[in-house]
Each structure stands twice: as C-alpha cells, then as structure tokens.
Design a protein that fits this description.
The chain is of the alpha/beta class. The protein has helices at 15-27, 54-64, 86-96, 108-112, 120-126, 141-151, 169-177, 188-196; strands at 2-8, 32-37, 71-73, 101-107, 127-133, 157-161. A 6-stranded parallel sheet has the order 3-2-1-4-5-6, with helices on both faces. α2 (54-64) runs antiparallel to α8 and α3 packs parallel to α5. The longest helix has 13 residues, at 15-27. It starts with a strand and ends with a helix.
C-alpha cells in the first residue's frame, strides 16, 4: 500500500484543501490519503488558540472528504496532550503500517523551509515528500526543484504542480465574522456545520 498523510490546522477545511487532495491523488499513484488535523502546533504555540476545537475540525474534515473513498480522516494528533511534531506522527504511522510506502503531503512554502523541521532527516528516511506547487503568477517550480534536489540525499521528494485556489482559512474566518457568504470557498456540508455550531 502507498499511503500519504496531509496535515494542517484545517480551521476551517476549505475547497483549496479538497482540490489539492484530488489533484495529488490524480498525479501520484496512492492507495490512501490520510487527512490529519493538527493538535498543538509547534509553530503556533504563542498564537491565539484555534477558534474551532480539535473535534470540530476533525468533523469538518470528515464532512469535506466524505465522498472521496480513498481518503480517511485521523484524530491521532488532536488526541495528543502535547505539541504535535511531524517526526512523531511519522514514527506512529511507520509503527501502524510497517510494510507500507509512506508519503507526507506539504505545501511549497513548507518544502522551502523543510530543512529547519525537527529531525527532518529522519522524516525523509521514513516517508517520501510530495510537495504541492501552488504559487500563482510567476511559478516557484524552479526554486522548489532546486530544494528538492538538495533534500533527495535523505529520501524521496516529488514536486507536483497544482491549480491554485486563492483562499485561506484565515480569510474564511474573517468572512464568517463579517457575515459574508462563504459557500463558494467551503464545501456545502461544512458550511452547514459551521452555521449549526456557530463557529468563528
């Protein structure tokens, strides 16, 4: 089996996330993509607490990817009491799927700073990287390919160009706060969940 994990705060999950997963699945041979809402991020410890709880973000992801048979949503990181480091998640996946080929899906911005991640060499020794190039306008592909070549001495790195979807979770939260329509940015069942639970 070839499994990839795609992590993030998903606060909320939106069509950009859904489109990215669809395009990665269409470009790379994978049997399963695991969506993993982040627990306590090491990069966001000093920021305001995420507006939606771990359970709510898990539920929104479950709704957003419900019709994609190759996707499962994991509550592994949100159930941890401590900071979520990717290396620990990767170790957990290796224990769970010892014979599978594992991959980590990241955005282009993350690939460029990947050498600063905790134990990045170990991460690459356990799973390959699939980096989504989603820069609009002038492509970042050349810079990404250069970084990929540098990291390839530690493991597999694949850069996949994808169509951009210009929206962020931060912008969506602002729109909800301002009572703006978000139906073109967020899956319909997730919009209903947000309204029903009075989120953001």
């Amino acid at each position: 089996m070839r499994r990839a994990v795609f992590g993030g705060s998903f606060d909320p999950v939106h069509n950009g996330h859904v489109n990215l997963v669809k395009q990665i699945y269409g470009s790379v041979t994978l049997d399963e993509i695991i969506i993993m809402p982040a627990g306590i991020s090491p990069f966001k410890q000093n920021m305001e607490r995420v507006p939606a709880s771990g359970k709510q973000r898990y539920e929104m992801c479950r709704l957003a990817f419900a019709d994609m048979s190759y996707v499962t949503v994991s509550d592994y990181e949100i159930s941890l009491p401590e900071v979520s480091y990717t290396v620990n998640t990767v170790r957990h996946l290796k224990e769970q799927y010892p014979t599978d080929e594992l991959f980590l899906i990241i955005g282009s911005d993350m690939l460029l700073s990947f050498h600063r991640w905790r134990n990045f060499e170990e991460i690459l020794s356990v799973c390959g990287l699939i980096a989504a190039s989603r820069e609009s306008g002038q492509s970042d592909l050349e810079e990404l390919e250069k970084q990929a070549e540098t990291l390839k001495k530690y493991g597999s790195v694949t850069v996949v160009p994808i169509d951009t979807f210009e929206v962020s979770s931060t912008e969506i939260r602002k729109k909800i706060k301002n009572s703006s329509d978000i139906s073109c940015y967020v899956p319909q069942n997730v919009v209903k969940y947000i309204m029903k639970n009075d989120l953001y």
